[in-house]
Amino acid sequence: MFQHALRQGLIGLFLITPALAAPTAEQRGKAFARANCARCHAIDRVSESPLKVAPPLRTLHRNYPIATLGEALAEGIYTGHADMPAFELSPDQIHDLLSYLKTLE
Fold this sequence. Notes:
Layout: H1 2-21, H2 25-36, H3 60-63, H4 69-75, H5 91-103
Helix pairs in contact: 2-5, 4-5
């Protein structure tokens, strides 16, 4: 009886462990920012941007409500200078990045 209960408990634990280990939207958004933005922008709450003219991501909400950035990200971010690449994000990437940016407000 005890072995059966133990076996069932272990099976249940193995089934839920991958779900517990899955990264959150905020974590995926931070990973996206690290891979695509951190070369120029500070992506955390305290660092200076490596490129001095690039605003830290933590300050974006001062000029742009984070909730309204989704449409701009979906249409593609294009800038007037050659240093920043154009970005077109998928809906999932937009959700993840916005989720991360909200943690920086």
